[in-house]
């Protein structure tokens, strides 16, 4: 390595070699001070630049954006969950109110029809009783007339008796036929109304059955969709746990990089220390010989300057190693302090999500059971209506 050349002519004001050496020492001290100041400034600027590069790096940017998106996604999910819960509650309340109104209307129609049937039955009974009393009155009258005519003439007794008997039989037959015809007409008049009412009731039952089946199927589909959403959320939670393992790998790589930097700094320090020792050994053997030569002062100054430069570079490497060790120690301490809190937060999040998912799963299972129970009750009501219709028909 070539040494820097310096002028060999001394200034005019330093004709004395001792004064010139003092002036040289002062110059070297000033240069040493300037170099130390510049080294500290450059080291501080290097550290600031490194921190600035790290803080303005894409990794920090993407991590901030990722945290922001995670928080926003969490809030959106919470809002959507509350909104869906309110919608489901409103929908269920409306369906329950509508079902209760339909049941009340159906009970009212059933009571009205029963009252109408009882009224018609009473009217028919009254008509039959009046017809029976009328026939009995006519028979009694005919019997009295026949007895009176029988007392008038014994000769005509048998004839009158026979005539009255035949007339009685004819009147009875005619009356019976009249009553049967009236009963038949009354039955024929009531049968179309009864048949129409039965058809309307069957049609209403079919419509109610179709409506209940459709509503229960829609509700069951919605519950199954929510169950699939819960399974999807559980899958996303597992994926998030896997993604959380990646920063741990990144921290391992950072520690490995810091270790490599430490090894490189130690290697550079060893090389500089070896060069300094070689230079010191050369100076010890050749200092007196170089002083006797014409350019001895310049060589001594060059060697001294090289020694100072190597010493400064060695000091810079030591400071850099100390900074790296301090950074590693601070980073390790920060990670070590944050690890229990991070583990605690992770367990709390997992426990909270498990509770939420378990509660939601229980709600879905309860709704599915209620849906099945509603289907069974609907089927039971239809069977009761069918049984009642068959009983009224019979």
TrEMBL record:
Region spans: Disordered: 105-136, 362-394
Keywords: Coiled coil, Cytoplasm, Cytoskeleton
InterPro entries named among the record's database cross-references: CFAP53/TCHP (IPR043596)
Predominant place of localization: cytoplasm
Ranges of biased composition (kind: Basic and acidic residues): 122-136, 369-394
Bilayer-spanning residue ranges: none
Ranges in a coiled coil: 216-333
Location in the cell: Cytoplasm, Cytoskeleton
Keyword Coiled coil tagged: yes
Cellular component annotations (GO), alphabetically ordered: keratin filament
Coiled coil found in the keyword field: yes
Listed GO biological process terms: apoptotic process
PANTHER family named among the record's database cross-references: TRICHOPLEIN KERATIN FILAMENT-BINDING PROTEIN, TRICHOPLEIN KERATIN FILAMENT-BINDING PROTEIN FAMILY MEMBER
Name this protein carries in UniProt: Trichoplein keratin filament-binding protein-like
Lineage, top ranks: Eukaryota, Metazoa, Chordata, Craniata, Vertebrata
Annotated gene: LOC101063983
């Amino acid at each position: 390595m070539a040494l820097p050349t310096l002028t060999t002519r001394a200034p005019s004001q330093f004709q004395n070699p001792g004064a010139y050496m003092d002036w040289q020492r002062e110059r070297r001290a000033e240069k040493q001070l300037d170099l130390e100041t510049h080294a500290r400034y450059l080291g501080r600027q290097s550290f600031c630049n490194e921190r600035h590069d790290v803080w303005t790096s894409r990794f920090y940017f993407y991590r901030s954006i990722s945290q922001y998106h995670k928080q926003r996604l969490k809030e959106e999910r919470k809002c959507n969950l509350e909104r869906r819960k309110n919608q489901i509650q409103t929908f269920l309340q409306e369906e329950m109110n509508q079902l209760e109104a339909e049941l009340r209307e159906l009970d009212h129609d059933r009571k009205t029809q029963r009252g109408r049937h009882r009224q018609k039955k009473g009217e028919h009974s009254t008509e039959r009783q009046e017809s029976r009393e009328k026939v009995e009155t006519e028979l009694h009258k005919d019997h009295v007339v026949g007895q009176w005519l029988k007392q008038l003439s014994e000769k005509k007794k048998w004839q009158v008796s026979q005539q009255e008997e035949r007339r009685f039989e004819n009147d009875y037959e005619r009356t019976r036929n009249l009553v049967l015809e009236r009963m038949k007409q009354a039955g024929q008049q009531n049968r179309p109304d009864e048949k129409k009412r039965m058809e309307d009731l069957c049609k209403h039952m079919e419509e109610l059955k179709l409506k209940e089946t459709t509503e229960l199927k829609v509700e069951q589909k919605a519950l199954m969709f929510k169950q699939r959403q819960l399974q999807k959320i559980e899958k996303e939670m597992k994926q998030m746990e896997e993604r959380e393992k990646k920063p741990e790998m990144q921290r391992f790589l950072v520690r490995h990089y810091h270790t490599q930097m430490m090894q490189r700094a130690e290697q550079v320090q060893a090389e500089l220390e070896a060069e300094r020792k070689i230079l010191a050994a050369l100076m010890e053997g050749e200092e007196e010989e170089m002083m006797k030569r014409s350019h001895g002062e310049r060589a001594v100054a060059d060697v001294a300057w090289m020694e100072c430069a190597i010493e400064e570079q060695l000091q810079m490497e030591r400071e850099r190693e100390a900074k790296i060790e301090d950074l590693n120690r601070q980073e390790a301490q920060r990670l070590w302090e944050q690890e229990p809190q991070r583990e605690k937060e992770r367990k709390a999040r997992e426990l909270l999500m498990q509770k939420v998912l378990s509660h939601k799963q229980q709600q879905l299972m309860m709704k599915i059971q209620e849906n099945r129970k509603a289907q069974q009750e609907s089927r039971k009501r239809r069977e009761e209506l069918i049984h009642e219709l068959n009983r009224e028909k019979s």
